[in-house]
Amino acid sequence: MSPVLVRPVREQLEHDRVIRLLQTRYRRRYEVGINVGAERTAAVGTEPSAIYPDLVMTATDRGHRLQIVAEVESSESVNHLEALSQWRPMAALRADFHLYVPAGALDPARRLLTEYHIATSELWTYHVIGDQIRFTLAQRARPERRAAAAEAPKRPARPSTPTPAAGARRRQSAARTTRAAAARPTRSKAPAKAARKRPASSAGKTSRVQKRK
Fold it and tell me: Smallest Cα–Cα separation from 102: which of 131, 76, 80, 120?
């Protein structure tokens, strides 16, 4: 139950019924703790600054990392005081924040979220028809992973200017390449061609002398 609101009995029963139904739906993927009525059994954080969302979902592995917090509102609890005291602290947690409001309170909820700059991962509406409760996804945003972004190591930027050691290595490599090229013997093809042509020329002259004789 919200610490700033006392709901009518009928509305409180409907509110708690929605919480238990969501607990059943999410239990397949998470460990789900709930706070119904005046109970405070599932906390996020430690006292005196602990927060008690309606649903607290943690991972099923050994780490039990917080994944989702969800808050279920009734028609009377979609107001400025609830948005500031409940929605804003939950949206600031390192977890996805899901908000469930009655279908008729969707527009007021959106105005409050926009006015106070409160980010929700998912905004749902619910509608009670007899014994059934129907849920409709009204808005979904990309889940914010501020914790992962903060913990990710930053890669150091490469220097834009070469270091003195790198420049010296490049100059030494260029000098070795130049010396190797200078020491390599060069072959001239022109003399060989001239040597091959001379016999042919002298042979031609001898044949012409013989013809004259």
Answer: 76
pLDDT at 152 over 80: no
Domains, the chain, ordered by start:
9-141 (3.40.1350)
To which H or E segment does residue 101 belong? Answer: strand 96-102
pTM: 0.65
Instruction: List all residues 6 or more positions away from 118 whose beta carbon is below 8 Å from its beta carbon.
Output: 83, 87, 88, 91, 112
Average pLDDT over residues 55-82: 94
- Who has greater pLDDT, 85 or 180? 85
Helix (H, G, I), strand (E, B) or coil at 75: helix
Question: How large is the C-alpha radius of gyration of the chain?
Answer: 41
Distance between start and end Cα atoms, the chain:
135
Burial of 120 (C-beta count, 10 Å sphere; 0-12/13-18/19+) = buried
Cα–chain center distance at 61: 21
Contact indicator for 44, 56 with CB cutoff of 8 Å: yes
Alpha helices in 72-163, H assignment, sequence order: 80-82, 88-91, 106-115, 146-151
- Write down the residue that tokens 């008729």 correspond to: 104
119: its two tokens: 């980010």
